[in-house]
Design brief:
Elements (H helix, E strand, L loop, with lengths): L9 H6 L11 H6 L9 H4 L6 H7 L11 H6 L11 H6 L14 H4 L19 H15 L10 H10 L4 H14 L7 H17 L6 H17 L2 H17 L11 H22 L21 H6 L3 H7 L13 H23 L8 H22 L10 H4 L5 H19 L12 H4 L4 H25 L11 H18 L9 H18 L7 H16 L3 H6 L9 H6 L6 H5 L5 H10 L1
Length: 597
């Protein structure tokens, strides 16, 4: 009979791996840098079983987790389970965390550390229980998500991650803070909200060189928070950072090798950023964070297809027997984006005309092309969604729809685009094209422009009258305030102009201006974004009452001895967030002071 084989070392026996029983130190312990029991454990040589105390003391260090880490679970990737960090997180330089085994599946106990009440000063939680987090998610997707600039989160994924405890804590904090600002459910201290924002920003700065979709989503929510709080300069700079992340991740290109949901999420993050960008640039390319010229992505699909993860073509075939009016929302998000692109083209044309020093021969063709785009857009929306773009019927009934914000934005923006296009040819109006351009415009074109402006501004005024009957809690897109502002100015100008006769008299125009002002005071009074707009409208209404004859002069284009084209080209609108940020370059003054001292 052969000699009995030496028992394996204690470390290999605990780890249940094959031991080569090499004297002094086995190969496994040498490779893993363990303290091999062959080195000095005489119990192995004498076949004495180690005592319980020795077993606890000599048990090897745990190097493998009992389950996948949070990041690998979120990415649905195979996790090596190693401690202190798995191979995937080490390779991608991510923070590796494992859910604690003794905790339940409750979101507040598992992952979202920002939700846990901490007994330390400066707690950055905007909610302290998982119920509040679930409520924040419900409120976000019910009231904020329908606004195009918020439509970049996948609702089923967010809810699933929240229930399973894998929702990123920065994203959870961003959602809760955004909801607390837009729809406060109680008096949340401003210091606590600011701490939440600072905490998320710090997490973004810590991973500045490692951008990802989740981090970009947090950043865009924080930009929204800064806009809501009136921190326009910080919002603008962070929006520029988001634009860099978009190009770094190449979100402006299609990625057909990715999953259906991943592709659509990338598209929506990109297009949501362009919606935010519109409030900064207002037609000026130097203020754009992500130019449309470098975007090669498709427009977003319908909400039903996105939520269910079904390609648009299959979903359309499945519901082909349904009427257009019964479709949940068709493609209203894509319609909002497409219409914003047309509006941006109109603003670019306005800026370019301001610089013109000679007649633009192709101007008539450009105007007709934009008009055709607007008419084509109208027919496409009415055919696919069944919504009448030219008029809002039963607005109070439509307000019960979850997608009312998009319906409202499509209609108001469509009418405002016509006003922006044709006000260029209203003689003496502040937004009129330069004199060298107007001298080449036929009188029939000026009459046509007058009729179009009067028609569409009346539609906008009608929308404002209907909005005034909605409850104050209704959340409206920010662009509605812009439409109300321009409609007020244009209505007062048309009614006061002595050059032509319009259907609306001065008294009716003043009444419409007061209604638009009431809408802004009702729905936007707590937003610093609209402070200047409301103030300007109040001044116009007051001037109309005090000195009715002065309102025309107030809204007329000044007649300087020279063209102010370049000034008008770079002039920022009153609703531009860059203008309200009031950036000041004081570096030259400081350098001069230093040289003098």
């Amino acid at each position: 009979m052969g000699r009995a084989q030496r028992p394996p070392c204690f470390q290999c026996r605990c780890r249940k791996v094959r031991c080569d029983r090499r004297p002094g130190c086995c190969n496994n312990c040498e490779r893993l840098d363990f303290a091999c029991s062959f080195k000095k454990n005489t119990s192995i040589l004498t076949n004495r079983r180690p005592s319980p105390k020795e077993t606890v003391q000599n048990r090897p260090e745990r190097r493998r987790g009992t389950q996948a880490c949070i990041e690998c679970r979120r990415q649905k990737a195979r996790c090596s389970g190693e401690l202190p960090e798995c191979a995937n997180c080490h390779r991608r330089q991510r923070s590796c965390q494992y859910p604690q085994a003794n905790q339940s599946n409750n979101i507040a106990d598992n992952l979202v550390e920002v939700r846990q009440p901490q007994e330390v000063p400066g707690d950055t939680s905007s909610a302290t229980t998982s119920d509040e987090l679930f409520e924040s998610i419900n409120v976000y997707f019910q009231h904020l998500y329908p606004i195009p600039s918020f439509a970049f989160l996948h609702e089923p994924t967010i809810r699933q991650q929240c229930e399973s405890g894998t929702l990123d804590h920065n994203l959870a904090m961003s959602i809760a803070t955004t909801v607390d600002l837009w729809l406060p459910r109680g008096q949340k201290p401003s210091e606590k909200i600011n701490l939440c924002i600072d905490s998320v920003e710090q997490g973004i700065w810590n991973q500045l060189d490692r951008p990802c979709i989740r981090q970009l989503q947090c950043l865009m929510l924080i930009v929204h928070c800064h806009i809501h709080l009136g921190h326009f300069s910080r919002a603008y700079m962070l929006a520029g950072l988001a634009g860099r992340a978009v190009t770094a991740l190449r979100l402006n290109y299609e990625r057909p090798e990715l999953s259906f949901i991943a592709q659509e999420t990338r598209r929506r993050v990109l297009w949501a950023l362009t919606s935010i960008d519109g409030f900064f640039s207002v037609g000026l390319p130097e203020y754009e964070t992500i130019p449309h010229a470098i975007i090669y992505q498709r427009l977003p699909i319908s909400e039903k297809a996105f939520r269910e993860g079904i390609p648009q073509s299959q979903l359309t075939a499945r519901r082909s027997s349904l009427s257009a009016a019964s479709a949940e929302d068709g493609g209203l998000l894509a319609d909002c984006i497409q219409l914003s692109k047309i509006s941006k083209d109109i603003m670019r044309l306005t800026r370019q005309l301001a610089l013109s020093e000679q007649p633009l021969l192709q101007l008539g063709g450009l105007i007709q092309e934009i008009q055709n785009d607007l008419l084509r857009f109208q027919s496409d929306v009415e055919l696919s969604v069944g919504h009448q773009v030219a008029a809002l019927a039963n607005l109070e009934d439509m307000a019960r729809s979850r997608w009312f914000a998009r319906i409202l934005q499509v209609t108001a923006t469509w009418h405002q685009a016509h006003c922006d296009l044709y006000r260029l040819f209203l003689p003496n109006y502040q937004a009129v094209a330069p004199r060298i351009i107007m001298d080449t415009i036929e009188p029939s074109m000026k009459d046509h422009a007058l009729a179009k402006c009067e028609e569409h501004v009346q539609h906008i005024n009608h929308i404002m009258q209907e909005l005034l009957h909605l409850p104050k809690e209704q959340i409206l897109p920010r662009y509605i305030a812009v439409c109300a502002y321009h409609a007020t100015r244009l209505s007062l100008f048309l009614a006061a102009s002595p050059d032509w006769k319009v259907q609306t008299d001065t008294a009716t125009a003043i009444k419409n201006a007061e209604i638009s002002l009431s809408v802004l005071q009702k729905f936007f009074s707590n937003l610093p974004f609209t402070d200047r707009i409301i103030q300007d409208m109040q001044d116009l209404v007051r001037l109309s009452h005090d000195r009715p004859g002065a309102i025309y002069k107030e809204l007329c284009c000044p007649s300087p001895p020279f063209d102010q084209g370049r000034h008008r080209h770079s002039h920022l609108a009153v609703h531009s967030l860059v203008r309200q940020a009031n950036f000041v370059d004081d570096g030259y003054e400081e350098s001069c002071n230093d040289s003098v001292n």
